[in-house]
Amino acid sequence: MSNSSLPRRSVLGAAAGGVAAAALSSAALPSAAEAAGPDASDGAAGRWRLRWAPEPARDGLAAFETLEDDRADSHPEAAPHIFVEQNNFRWNMHLVDRDTSTDRQRQEVTGMRTPAGGPQLEWRLGESWRVTYAMYIPSTLRATTTFTHIMQTKMPGLGTGPITVTSLRRVEGRQTIEHKIFEPDLLVGRTDLEPLQDSWIDIDYRIRIGEGTDGGVRWIIRSDGRTVLDAGLDGVDTFLGDRVRPKWGIYRSLGDTSGSLRDCYLLIRRMRGYQLVQAPEATPTL
């Protein structure tokens, strides 16, 4: 998290003296069909059009817009920290790794290119996007008392704060995985982390890019075919300016007070990116 993050627009319609957003039940947000081909129909919500389908073994890191691999050159003998292993994208983090701000660590990739090495996909104001992927969080990648982000959305550029974050956070001593609207710190959903570690889980993340009360997010976790969490927020601000760009990897503070920092790694595979396509008069639904 940058100390020079841009000020966010306040969430319109917030309760007096605090912030609030309407939580969306799964019934209010129809599920999108898992896409076996280039399009997945979602009924009244429109059609999720497949825009990005990298295969690590085929496309390598050219699937992403940029790499943030040991930007401070703090641990060159362990390079690269981000690479392809079999058909997985892998991020390694060592206790000695440092980012350019030395109170934190960062190994991340940003954006989506299609085809690999080609033009970047740009998430623009008024659009709805969805990313799905399988993720393996080992028991060495632990929740912390400060921030440990494993997925973010941001506006590209230096000094910009996150828009949304998926984080591993200790809450009253429990290890949890959570998703938040970064400012003004709105919790979308949270569940226990430990039952999800050391196995592959499936993530389905959707964002409607809007200012003021026009934005929305939905975050779904599945494990062994079972839905662990399906949570959303509507009527929130999901836009800072220019465009929105996703990031994946490990970005964590060294200020943890629970003794949870370890050498660790993260694996992701089966990444897919979709854009919602619908009639102009339709209301975007996640």
Automatic annotation (TrEMBL):
Q: Which InterPro entries match?
A: TAT_signal
Keywords, sorted A to Z: Signal
Q: Which residues form the signal peptide?
A: 1-35
Q: Please give the superkingdom of this protein's source.
A: Bacteria
**Gene3D superfamilies from the entry?**
2.60.120.200
Name of this protein: Tat pathway signal sequence domain protein
Origin species, per record, is Actinopolymorpha pittospori
The organism's lineage is:
Bacteria, Bacillati, Actinomycetota, Actinomycetes, Propionibacteriales
